[in-house]
Amino acid sequence: MQIGIDKIGFYTPHLYVDMEKLALARNEDPGKFLIGIGQEKMAVAPVTQDAVTLAANAALEILTDEDKEKIDFVIFGTESGVDHSKAAAIYVHRLLGLKPEVRAVEVKEACFGATAGLQMARGHIALHPESKVLVLGSDISRYGLNTSGEVTQGAGAVAMVVSAHPKILAIEEPSVYHTEDIMDFWRPVYSDSAYVDGKFSNEKYISFFQNVWKQYREKTGFTLSDFKAICFHMPYTKMGLKALRTVLDETDEDGRERLLAHYETSKSYNKIVGNIYTGALYLSLLSLLEQNTNIEAGARIGLYSYGSGAVGEFFSGILQPGYRKALQPARHQQMLEARKEISVAEYEAIFTTSLPNDGSAVTLPVNEDPATVCLAGIEGHKRQYVNKNNRVGG
Ligand code: HMG
């Protein structure tokens, strides 16, 4: 039985900052942000979007009634959780109108959470082939104004339906992984922004990639020529390229050209959205699948997942016949083009606006946010969500 990704949805907020303007405001050469880091635009989440709403908006665009009938497991990967106790998956479960006979949990390991969810989903489908699993990766990446990580912020979510007989990508065995207790990036419970040892995180991302790629090669006997393309966790679009370059001499000129050309395609959405942490690898996969013109069904795609702290995993999948029909490039293009540019000052004002943390109530301007699912406020210590399609609130 083949198990894998049947559908992929994506959502990013309607606001962005131009990275050339951010560079100038930070007294940096724009070349550093645009080329050295590889980011052109950065998505900014208004106060009416959080990890829950981003994920619900991403899932809304893909779920049919049949999916809703079959989904019996919702796995929400995030490092931007809204509650220390209750799983974000439960809010999404209600906002999407899923049936009650569902397991709903939140998974955390930095940017690795959605990959953990995908692999858990595969195990679940192996035991229950008729069911479907909704895997979510949703985050708002925050380092702080005027920090070196600021250029790598972003916001967005990816939603995947995982099933038997998937329409997009059948995940293969084996999958290889590696864990080490390191402090390259972390966010203590008292902080709403991440702490990072930037250079160390880059080194570890690359060394974990080399570790899992070596394990994978030894287990499978595959070489780079067995892959049409490799997608990487993309904290910023230069990062995966740095890792890829360290192994390119294992293949010939044609192989290098192919992998580098597809890498370019795989960063199409990420370079204008920014780091979306758990969803970043799958946004890169979506970029590749929706924007390529020459990858046929049957092609093997490699996936490298990295979550700081740290866990790395390398696995692969085979593109399924007719996979293009299961994608929505026009819809995503339209969503990205309809976004509104805000100035650096407007972005700074949004960044420094926070929800009350003393238990007081607040009502938020959901009419200023075109998203279907929004955070409408806080009342009695409870987040109030609204789905404008059916005005299910509370
Ligand atoms: P920095 O020190 O400001 O940047 O921080 P830099 O001085 O290293 O410059 C960056 C690149 O720009 C360099 O290229 C420069 O040469 C180039 P490189 O040597 O790296 O190829 N450059 C220019 N290029 C063209 N024209 C110019 C120019 N000037 C300079 N004029 C850093 C960069 C990424 C460290 C920082 O932004 C940061 O700390 N970011 C956050 C951490 C991060 O993204 N780490 C990635 C690996 S860890 C990970 O992926 C996990 C994560 O997603 C979290 C999770 O798992 O939850 C982050």
Automatic annotation (TrEMBL):
Q: What is its EC number?
A: 2.3.3.10
- The record places domain Hydroxymethylglutaryl-coenzyme A synthase N-terminal at 2-163
Q: Which GO terms describe its molecular function?
A: hydroxymethylglutaryl-CoA synthase activity
UniProt keyword Transmembrane, yes or no: no
Q: What keywords are annotated for this sequence in UniProt?
A: Acyltransferase, Transferase
Binding residues for (3S)-3-hydroxy-3-methylglutaryl-CoA, per the UniProt record?
A: 29, 143, 242, 275
GO biological process terms, alphabetically, are: acetyl-CoA metabolic process
Cross-referenced Pfam families? HMG_CoA_synt_C (PF08540), HMG_CoA_synt_N (PF01154)
- Hydroxymethylglutaryl-coenzyme A synthase C-terminal domain span: 177-246, 266-350
First-tier enzyme category under EC: transferase
Keyword hit for Transferase: yes
Active site as annotated: 79 (proton donor/acceptor), 111 (acyl-thioester intermediate), 233 (proton donor/acceptor)
Which family does the record assign? Belongs to the thiolase-like superfamily. HMG-CoA synthase family.
Q: Which PANTHER family match?
A: 3-HYDROXY-3-METHYLGLUTARYL COENZYME A SYNTHASE, HYDROXYMETHYLGLUTARYL-COA SYNTHASE
The name this protein goes by in its record: Hydroxymethylglutaryl-CoA synthase
* Organism whose genome encodes this protein: Heyndrickxia faecalis
Higher taxonomy:
Bacteria, Bacillati, Bacillota, Bacilli, Bacillales
